[in-house]
Amino acid sequence: MSNGNGGYERDSGTESEARRRFLKLAGVTGAAGIVGSNGMLSALAQEGDDEGVEIDDLQGQLPIEDRYLRIAVLATAKAAQLHQNYYGEIGQAEEKDPQNLLTQVDTEAETLIRDTIREELGDDFEDENHALYGEEQGGQLEGGYVWIIDPLDGTTNFVKGIPHFGVNLAVTKDGELHAGVMYYSLWDEVYVAVRDEGAYKFRSDGYDLVAEDSEPAELSVSDTEAVEDSFHGVGFYSRATADDFDYMGLWRYLFANTQGTRLLGAAAPDLAFVAEGVFDTVSVKDLKPVDVAPEALIVREAGGTVTDFEGNTDLDSILEGNVVASNGELHDDFFDLLEDSGKDWLTRPIDTLER
């Protein structure tokens, strides 16, 4: 419910439940040691029971059996529970730039994810040449396995009390996307994919990674073929985009001549919605590898197409952060419109614009 200040307020029962679920996943003892005496996780641990909580055996719960996917889902689930505990209670954020905010939740969620990956892999972290690259703590994008981490995609939404944000985690293997997870935090909905194994969505409950009453559903993009029947998501994340007249003109055209466009403020769930068939296309510019890596795999495994704005499909191009994701049917139409568009598409009467 609203707290009267533009934010979101949970009742005490919901808050207690969220905290209890977090402690179930993290383990009270483990959570206390992750951040330190002044961190949020330590505060959570101090409120919990004295004894640590064992994490149930996760084998067989996920729709795809893959060690790295299991670790990724576990790590994102822990971060999402941290989001749930502090949603509506974070009123201040550091400004990295005018459209890019940072909160303590971002930094501590990333620490939690990193520690989970290292703990789950054990000696294999070094033996298999794993590397970590995160939104807040950086790292390297080279290694046998690279974990690409966005601990809170949609920070501004999180701070403003808009319930649309998530956790992003991708794993590359030998330079190719291997596994991807987008955990839609407040809704406990999890989008996953493994290369050549398909894409799925399921609901978690904080105790089992897949809730007992949740049947994983295989994801599939929409079959929309006509532009006039299509529905689009867009992300404008930097001032530079405002001067991209071709791109802005395209969106004016789509706004007027389709079922609609939406600017929701979080690239990760927006892109995942393409895999689910909610959006027919989503395009984003000026983002980072962490914002788009999991969804590139999830959308492709759901039957869609993901390229950069030059039509390139290789991982290096995608990680530049300028991405078009579509159901495949409309990909060429999107680029045809973009090629036709220009500054005049922002000023001419909409009825005069022709494809």
TrEMBL record:
Enzyme class per UniProt: hydrolase
Molecular function (GO) terms for this protein are: fructose 1,6-bisphosphate 1-phosphatase activity; inositol monophosphate 1-phosphatase activity; metal ion binding
Q: List, alphabetically, the Gene3D superfamilies matched.
A: 3.40.190.80, Fructose-1,6-Bisphosphatase, subunit A, domain 1
One Pfam family recorded for the sequence:
Inositol_P
- Write out the entry's keywords from A to Z: Carbohydrate metabolism, Hydrolase, Magnesium, Metal-binding
For the biological process aspect of GO, one term held by this record is: inositol metabolic process
Any keyword Metal-binding?
yes
In this chain, Mg(2+) is annotated as bound at: 135, 150, 152-153, 291
Reported EC number(s) for this entry are: 3.1.3.11
Hey, which family's this protein in? Answer: Belongs to the inositol monophosphatase superfamily. FBPase class 4 family.
The entry's protein name is fructose-bisphosphatase
| Organism of origin | Natronoarchaeum mannanilyticum
- Read off the lineage from the record: Archaea, Methanobacteriati, Methanobacteriota, Stenosarchaea group, Halobacteria
